[in-house]
Amino acid sequence: KSLVKNFGEKSNAAKFTLVLPDTAFISNFSMVSGGVEYVADVKAKDDAREVFEKFANEGYDVGLVEKKSRDANVFQIQSNVAPAGKVLFKLTYDELLQRKLGHYEQAIHVQPG
Asked: Per DSSP, which regions of 20-73 are E strands?
């Protein structure tokens, strides 16, 4: 989860990057705005960008998740937050963990700052 607040008088954009494990996939992306949760639709890259830009230009709260690298699970999340608004982003991913010698191991990429 990630909370983005806009303290300005105009809509503003925010971007952040997410690195998932190689065996993981995104199973849900949603955003909560004005107390309502909006669940993302999967669209072709160009169609998704067109919808994002249309609503962002109109000043709406809107989000876009794009894969940024061909050989890694690096995703960029872009958002537009309405004036004086806040949006909570929720991203869920699933990963198949392999059992080795009776144990499971999970590695998580953390890059503070």
From this structure: 24-33, 36-39, 62-67
Burial grade of 54 (CB within 10 A; 0-12, 13-18, 19 or more): exposed
pTM strictly above 0.85: no
Take residue 73 and report the two structure tokens written for it: 């699970």
State how far the Cα of 11 lies from the Cα of 39, in Å rounded to an integer.
21
Location of structure tokens 């705005």: 33
- State the CB neighbour count (10 A cutoff) for residue 63: 23
**Joined tokens for residue 69:** 């690298």
Q: Which two tokens stand for residue 95?
A: 């990963």
Q: How far apart are CA 20 and CA 25, in angstroms?
A: 8
pLDDT digits (tens, 9 = 90+) for 66-104: 887 676 788 888 888 888 889 898 989 998 888 999 998
- 20: Cα separation from own chain's centroid: 12
